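Need tokens for this chain, all 336 residues.
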Amino acid sequence: MSEYRLQWMRRLARLEVYEIASIFMLLALFAVFVACPERIQHVIGFTAIANPLWSNTLTVLLRGVTWFYIAFALAFAGCVYMTRRQTDPVAIGLHRYARVALSFLAVLVVFDIINFYIAVFNPYDHDALLLHLDTQLFGATPSHWFDRVTCLPLTLLFCGAYASWFIMTYLTVFIMGCRSEQALREYVTAALLAFYIGYSTYFFVPAIGPEFTTHYQHSIGPLLKLVDGEGPFLSRDCFPSLHTGLAIVMLVHAWRHARKLFWFYAVDIALIILSTMYLRVHYGVDLVAGAALAVAVCELAPVLTAWWEESRERILAQTAYSERPTHVQDGVSEWA
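Here are the structure tokens for all 336 residues:
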């Protein structure tokens, strides 16, 4: 085995499961970008450059959010690089959280790209199907149950609960990190698996949600501020409900690793799940699918991380000889 290959095997072994998943998703989406330039250009509509791949690349580079991603990626990557060999606790903590931050930044990039790819490759909403399933299972979509009790205090409460999901998702990273390295590893792995599986499902079952497809007697104006975009670029991110999925992932890991905070999580998670129905963001089947996804990744994450730890030790042990000097000027054996 060549020295070059050994080095790459060791680099791969030092990655975490969630980092490998992020790299895989980004490479897969990049492959689609390279393989289908004409179709992507047709949706973008920018034809100033004859070559569609270069035209699409220029369009991406002209987006402000692209440079936002690049700036943060460089900042986090720089932090990872500068702290990679340091041994003091602060540097070790910075190194660990910067790697996690890079992975969550990849989640944002993947979400952005997949929502665009939906408009390119699968621009057909499945709201009618989801609404039909709700009617068959629950008699009506659950958001209609809350229509009769809509009022400003409840709207403000559930808007706050819905927004707290974003804070709690990342706050839980630090809570798990304070508990143990294993707790952090399992939580981030479960969270990112839920994100990536959920985003992939968005592509195959795009839907915009009951707020835009069904009639209600009362309006909840603040919902419009939670949704960005319009027309074909309105996010198709209903099925499954990742607000429900990630909320349950957080709750499970609070029970496993931060039992004292469990009831705090339980109250907030209950409000988050109710808010997805009150604010008319999700259908009932979205919540069922999100909960099922959460259970699956919470069971899978510990198994994957344990298997990868064993594989990591084996790979590092098998390639350890590559770090020994191959030529010793005084004639002492390589083993010595």
